[in-house]
């Protein structure tokens, strides 16, 4: 909160209001999260020492017509404690969301009008009577108190003091409407969401206090477009991946059944679901987002905090923008609890890596490449003399770095993103450059390098050697397109770039360590090489993809 001037300077004695009452005003500025803006806060004292009017002003309202405005009476239980007994809290937050959407607006929060003016203690005593079966009107009367002692003359004065020409008044209260009639351009009703605790309160307002309360029961919104024209984003966490995958594939299957276009984005853990959802919203503008994550307590000390952080982040994101975010979060004590709901069993959940699976979690994004590297290195060791394999691996590492550099360069040069932007359905972050496909580049690099040695040094027939180059690169390129991680251009770029690097390393590499001697390869190892590299990549699931235990 930043105070822009000292209290003494801004405390001004204002002229008497229309009713001849002196009013004091003091102001400051502060950022209001729910309104997503820095607002001017003005505090007005009134002739009634109990009543203060706090004006929360967004934008420049002086001289404006039709300023969205709400006069809100203090309700500690509803506004602060979010009690569901009344609709005060929801009305307040609903109006703040209105303020969020418009360039200027004003909220007058009337302190001292607690319990329609009878005060908090009396209101809580009235609650006791309500619990015994009296409605809100009778409860006040039984306590010997008036039903409503609020007046709104001072709020009219404040609106005029703020220089507003006319307001769009958000209320259902007929007293507010008539008190502010002279400045009201239009009255906007505020539907109240009914729950089993506030139904009596809302009905009494409607039936006995003449409020124009509209009862709003929750119903699924009508779809404005046929499902085939909808785009739904799925943002999912890779932590507890086995369980998440079950949930995700079920959601995807259902959306596909409805022919809805699905945009997917993976994030490392549940905490990143919030930023993932925000990025998807910003870059892909979907019609709705489903966030999927599984948080398992196990022995984690951070479980409660993580759950809170994710829920708060997503709830806030939901509140500040119009695209619905549907929470597909599973929070459970242990794996067994996670499994029935997600359709997975505990034993399966341990996955291919048993209890060491968690160590692989950070490597998920690299699993494809690692699969290739491990299998290739092993095959090369079989085929070639042991000292050659490290040279090839060194080349792979070098080529990988060069390719990453090239990607960044292409991203800088191609400002429109035509070349480097990945397909919209890609699991990768939208800003992650995709040209050239590094998986394809590296795979082509290895196979070209290897094929050249077979042909040039070992005298293999050209076509047989070429097959060694073409097959794995082709498999990889096809898999990258199939997985929607790259476009056709990006994989073609990968093949061309990998070929260049393979040729270069075949010339340069041996010079680094002198001319290498090549052993006679074992023919079976060549066959294993081609199929072991190609098939796992092409046939889902990626066999070495880690499965995470909590
Ligand atoms: N006496 C009494 N007051 C209540 C009860 N529940 C809520 N209130 C008070 O009712 C008042 C509601 O005021 P507002 O939020 O301005 O709403 P409203 O007068 O219903 O008018 P609009 O919301 O503008 O339509 C607040 O002062 C609450 O403290 C209750 O059970 N008994």
TrEMBL record:
Q: Where are the transmembrane segments?
A: 360-381, 491-512, 524-544
Any idea where the Phosphatidic acid phosphatase type 2/haloperoxidase domain is? 395-509
Q: Which domain of life is it from?
A: Eukaryota
Q: Which InterPro entries match?
A: GTP_cyclohydro_II, LS/RS, LS/RS_sf, PAP2/HPO, PAP2/HPO_sf, RibA, RibA-like_sf
Ordered alphabetically, the record's keywords are: GTP-binding, Hydrolase, Membrane, Metal-binding, Nucleotide-binding, Riboflavin biosynthesis, Transferase, Transmembrane, Transmembrane helix, Zinc
Presence of the UniProt keyword Nucleotide-binding in the record: yes
Q: Which cofactor names does the annotation list?
A: Zn(2+)
Q: Which residues form the GTP cyclohydrolase II domain?
A: 37-188
**What is the reaction catalyzed?**
GTP + 4 H2O = 2,5-diamino-6-hydroxy-4-(5-phosphoribosylamino)-pyrimidine + formate + 2 phosphate + 3 H(+)
Q: Does the keyword Transferase apply?
A: yes
> What is this protein's name?
4-dihydroxy-2-butanone 4-phosphate synthase (DHBP synthase)
